[in-house]
Amino acid sequence: MNTQITQNTKDLQVDAQFPQTTREDEIDLRELFSVIWQGKWLIIAITALFAIGSVIFAINQPNIYKAEALLAPASSEASSGGLAALASQFGGLASMAGINLGGKGGIDKTQLAIEVLKSRQFVGEFIEKHQIMPELMAVDKWYISDNRLSFEPELFDTETKSWVREVKAPLKPEPSVQEAHKEFMKIFSVSADKESGMVTIEVEHQSPFIAKQWVDWLILDINRVMKERDVAEAMRSTEFLNKQIELTNVSDIRVILYKLIEEQAKTTMFAEVRDEYVFKTIDPAVVPEDKFKPRRALICILGTFLGFMLSMAIVFTRVALGNRKIY
User: Where are the bilayer-spanning segments (predicted)?
Assistant: First the structure.
């Protein structure tokens, strides 16, 4: 009898715990909704303020257009095939003579061209050659009606064609190459697909015509720069090899040197007859018709959501601090 009474008492205690938990949950939910309801006007006001602000911000953001071109690495067989054959045929003898024929382990010309495109020297020369510093650093608006750019008057004076921006030392009114390079890298990208090896060059700008023009110029300039580098290197190598021929009487070494001079001549000829020296254009850049950014709808949604979350945080913080009177 006592055992049964004890068991019934335990069952009643266990059953009593669940209704109590349910009541506590109901009370918590009621308090939660009560707090939200009390602070509804604050939540509505902050959310509306952020929504309006995000709409204004999105409307004031200029349209940015992106032009892109798809490139394929140009074949380098004419310049590397002969050296590879020489390396396999005379590699041991050339090593004994202190001559490096290259072959495997050379620098990938495509990757080298990509790194040159990103370099401060190339970007600085590109900006200076095409005189695009104002279009890069001081554009205010692009007018689609007459394809015209306006510049920020506090940065660039269009009448005198001079920079008037106020900066702190060591910066100067006219942007330096380092400043221009940083700004250019924000709107420029170049990447190579690991599987196909195709290279994509992209430029973003308020003017779609300028974005397209800059992509075309970049392709022309990188092919020209890489061609000039290889031609200059071939000429220096030829001059050096001719001197070495005069200094040696070993017939086998002279054969190697003459072969090397022949390969350098092929490199020079190959460079002179090809305009697309490093990159061949597969899909040229066109004037983009659709804007790339900003995504105004997404900005408005995120801004409104941020305002709602901030208002909720303010309401619950006030309650947590003990101030239950919410306006």
Answer: 41-59, 297-321
Enumerate residues 6+ apart whose C-beta is below 8 A from 156. 134, 137, 138, 162, 163, 164, 165
| Res 12 pLDDT > 70 | no
Give the pairing type, strands 65-73 and 188-192.
unpaired
Determine the pLDDT at residue 318.
81
Lookup result for tokens 């490093």: 278
Query: Tens digit of pLDDT for each residue in 218-243?
Result: 999 999 999 888 888 888 888 887 88
Q: Residue 150 — φ and ψ, nearest 5°?
A: -115, 150
Residues in the chain, total: 327
Listing DSSP states for 215-248 in one string gives: HHHHHHHHHHHHHHHHHHHHHHHHHHHHHHHHH-
Contact 50, 303 (CB under 8 A): yes
Provide the Cα torsion 18, 24, 29, 35; round to 10°.
Answer: 180
CA dist., res. 190 & res. 110, Å (int)? 11
Could you give the C-alpha distances from 209 to 143, 206, 222, in angstroms and in order?
Answer: 12, 9, 20
pLDDT bracket for residue 76 (50, 70, 90): low
Helix then strand then coil, in percent of the chain rounded to 5, is: 60, 15, 25
The topology (CATH level 3) of 65-283 is Bacterial polysaccharide co-polymerase-like (3.30.1890)
Q: From CA 156, how far away is CA 184, in angstroms rounded?
A: 17
